Structures are given as C-alpha cells and as structure tokens.
Amino acid sequence: MPYQSVKFWVPLTLVVFFAGTFVFATGPVQGPSVTRSGGGGPCAAAGVSGRFCQTDGVQTIDAGARIQSIYIGLGKGAIANNMVVGTTGLQANTTGFRNTCIGFESCQANTDGQDNVALGNNVLEVNTSGLTNTGVGNRALNKNTLGANNVAHGYWACRENTIGAHNTCIGTDALYQNQTGDGNVCVGVAACDGNLVSENVCVGRYACYNGQTGTQNASLGSYVNSQATSGDRNVNLGYQAAYGYSEDGGTTVTPDSNVMIGWRAGWRSHNGYGRDRDG
User: Fold this and answer.
1) Residue ranges in 21-174 assigned as alpha helix (H)
2) Distance between CA atoms of 66 and 69, rounded to whole angstroms?
3) What are the Cα distances from residue 192, in Å, to 42, 62, 120?
4) pLDDT tens digits, residue range 15-26?
5) Which residues make beta-bridge pairs with 157?
6) How, if at all, do strands 29-30 and 218-220 pair?
7) Facing residues of 53 across strands?
8) Residue 143 pLDDT > 70, yes or no?
9) Which of 47, 127, 136, 214 is spaced 20 to 30 Å from 262 by Cα?
C-alpha cells in the first residue's frame, strides 16, 4: 500500500482521530507527522505493526488525520494520489484520482472525476465526473458537475457552470452565469457575466457583461460591448467600444459581423450609422 506524508506544526496539544481511536500528543509536534503506511511504509520498515508508530521523531498514522475539524488525508477510498485538506472534501469519491482539494467542502461530491485542482471554500463542490478542472477562489466552478478542462480564478468565477468545457474565467464573477457554453475566455471583473453560449473572448472589466446569446465575439477594453445580449462575430476594441450599440435603436440587440476600434467607437449608435440614440 502506498503512503502519504503531510507536514504541519502544532504548538499546542494535538488531537488526532484514526480508526476509532484518539491519540493525544502534547507539546510541539513537528512534521512530517501524518503518514499513510503499510507495505513498505515507515512503520513496516521499522518493524512496527499496527496503525501508529513513532520512528526518528516522526509520528506515523495509517489513516487520515483530523485537527480541529480540518481533515488531512486522501478522502474516501484512500486513493493514494488524491489530497484533501478541509472538512468534507472527496467524501463521496469512488474511483477519482489525482485530485487536489483544499478548502471547506471543496470537491465534496466528486465520485470519479480526476486531475482536478480546487483551492478555496466550496470550489468544485458538486463536481461528480468533471475532469482536469482548476478552480481557485471561493465558489469558483461551484456548480460544475461534468464540465472539463475549465480554468476559473477568482471569487465566484464560472460559478454556475455545469457542463461547459474549455472555458477560462479570471476575475470576480467572470463568466458567472454560464452553464453549458464552451470555449469562452473571459478576463476581468464580471467579464462575460451573463454569457450563456460559446466561443467568446472578452477581456476587460465588465467586458461583454450582458452578453447572453452572442457567439464568436472578440472584445478588449473596459465596458466593451457590455450592454448587448446578442450579436455574433463582432470585434470591438477600446474603452466602451460598442457600448449600447444596437440594431434597432434599442439597448441590447446587436447586429452581426461589425468591427469597432477606438474610444467609445460605435457608442450608443444603431444600424452602423453612428447615430446617438439620445439625439
């Protein structure tokens, strides 16, 4: 059986629970101090049988450890290349492997998902079979279940994503509402917040903020194309470029296949004529 080693320093009394037994170690405990052993592990090598031993000042426990409700171990199934630091991480795991889950309830529902990295509270909380996702920040990729190859960095980044794949969302609330859209790149606070579809690239604070059904758009700049809810194959570059640009003089319906470059290019115009809606 492979073994696991976790290093930590506890200056006060340490209480460890394993295999139905409490082990008390008073005073400083310096790591590596939690090791999964057996079949060539440290205890066996020292000729010691059982689940607990101490060799060369190292405390060895053949199980996960819990310190003030924080669990450190491999998660359910004790698959050697998983790592959990938190409360209920990987508590439903069956065959998932190479997962790293650090934070309150991170990877809590994972069953056979693999190669996921979750860092933060409730990251990938309901993921079951999603693969190769990376979530950093509280509730990033929180509702992901089957989505794969997503990268989310930021508070609530890609929070609503369920089966969407190959998305990159960096920034607080980036790509927040997306559920099934694939291949989006959204960088900036609330970039692509309302996006529901695929293949958009939006970089900048509130870039493509209201975008819901428009696809294959490229926008760079703060508030770029932030009012439109539709429109495909548009290229917008510059602060507030295409802000409020519409097809009918309204506020949201954006036409397709336009290029707008410059400060407020096409700002509050419609039908491509640059007419200000307010006269």
Assistant:
1) 42-45
2) 6
3) 51, 47, 22
4) 333 333 333 343
5) none
6) unpaired
7) 60
8) yes
9) 214
